[in-house]
Please model this.
Amino acid sequence: MSDDEWRARCVEVYPQVYRAMIAMGAPENEAADAVQDAYEKALRQNRALDRPEGWLFVVALRRWRADRWRRRIFGPLSGVRATAQDPALAERVDLLAAVAALPRRQREVLIARYVLGLSQVEVARQLHIAVGTVAATTSHAARSLRQRLGESYGR
Model:
């Protein structure tokens, strides 16, 4: 299958994959987002696959499930923040919410570095990225957290 045929086939099966996501239990808006992300990944593929509907479905399903887990983990934070009597607890909830809002790569690097305690070399090896990328990503994530939480956080 040529690249053009692959792209045309992806467009053709898009409604079918969307319906499959709805059948899996995804709400309409979440199904649309997941399939759209899968479709964008399909267009960036360097190679054509024989069954784009299967590939699109698996990618969309993984994306939807990851988002669902993320909402389950971080969603309750807003309720905890609203009822927190202890200012230290409120700050920790704010930090978790700010980490949850970071892009996936930044979250992965920060969690690996500071929750798991991995070195830059270990993070690079586990995430299959360069050590310099770990350092730069950590720096960008820290800058984003400082901006979201304010410079006075942690003093």
